[in-house]
Specification:
Blueprint: E1 4-7, H1 17-26, E2 34-37
């Protein structure tokens, strides 16, 4: 079972272009296979 760590400040969403792109790249993974880290941006 592959696992993916996604490190990005962009949310996985359907309302921004970057969110749509990220969903397209990792949308087929189950929640158990995908982890996301959102670093704080200052």
């Amino acid at each position: 079972m592959p696992k993916v760590l996604l490190i990005t400040h962009n949310p996985l969403s359907s309302y921004t272009n970057m969110g749509k792109t990220l969903q397209g790249l990792v949308g087929a993974f189950d929640k158990d296979e995908l982890k996301k880290v959102c670093p704080a941006i200052s």
